[in-house]
Amino acid sequence: MLNALKPYHLGFSGLALGHHHYDFDIGSKFFDCFEESEIHAGKVKVDLDLEKQKKMLVLHFDIHGAVEVVCDRCAYEYMQPIAGKEEVYIKFGPEYIEEDDDVLVLPQGSHEVDISQMLYDFIHLMVPYHRLHLPDENGNPECNKENLEILERLAPKENQIDPRWEVLNRLKTD
Ligand SMILES: [Zn+2]
Predict the structure, then answer these.
(1) Is 173 exposed, middle or buried (0-12, 13-18, 19+ CB in 10 A)?
(2) Residue 42 CA to ligand 1 centre (angstroms)
(3) Residue 99 is part of which domain span?
(4) How far is the CA of 147 from the centre of ligand 1 (A)?
(5) Within a domain: 158
(6) Model pLDDT, residue 163
(7) From start to end of 13-142, where are the E strands?
(8) Helix, strand, coil in percent for the chain, rounding step 5
(9) Based on the structure, what is the number of domains in the chain?
(10) Is residue 86 part of a domain?
(11) What is the Å distance from ligand 1's center to 63 Cα?
(12) Which of these, 37, 86, 146, 170, is most buried using a 10 Å CB contact count?
């Protein structure tokens, strides 16, 4: 287990029945533990209410903050606000199964649950599909102007002739 993820392994065997509260501050240390992570920096607060019932655990996550992603328009990083609530039910059975998006079965006799992968997935899913700098006071996205200019210069011109047609045209005139 990576040390930075240790706090996300919640031991529950010693907990009394009822609600237990946990706070997490997620930043680059967390995301660095996941090689494939698209997000590398951010400031995300997680309020977790763990409800221990006789035969089940119910996790209520309240996630809010911002993560650094790359803007689709100007290819520059910006902080994308994210927020959402998630619920996960943890049941016990013969073996570990992810029964559903929100139902996890842990082997009977487990003492702890690793919530790092859940949090990783929730945060990534909260980032909108289209990433765009937030609008300024005039409603225009606050894109990086220098980057936009470079991208515009590099973008193919719409009226540019396909080079293959150019060759044909030259043959015709010859
Ligand atoms: Zn932008």
Answers:
(1) exposed
(2) 17
(3) 3-134
(4) 9
(5) no
(6) 63
(7) 18-26, 42-52, 57-70, 77-93, 97-100, 103-107, 112-114
(8) 25, 40, 35
(9) 1
(10) yes
(11) 24
(12) 86
Weakly modelled stretches of the chain, pLDDT under 70: 1-2, 158-174
Ligand 1 midpoint to CA 22 (Å):
35
Q: Which of 122, 123, 145 is nearest to 71 (CA)?
A: 145
Q: What is the per-residue pLDDT for 2? A: 66
Q: Judge whether 27 lies within some domain.
A: yes
pLDDT at 57: 97
Per-residue pLDDT, 140: 86
Token pair, residue 35, equals 């090689």
Residue-wise pLDDT tens digits, 46-77: 999 999 999 999 999 999 999 999 999 999 99
The pLDDT, as a whole number, for residue 101 is: 86
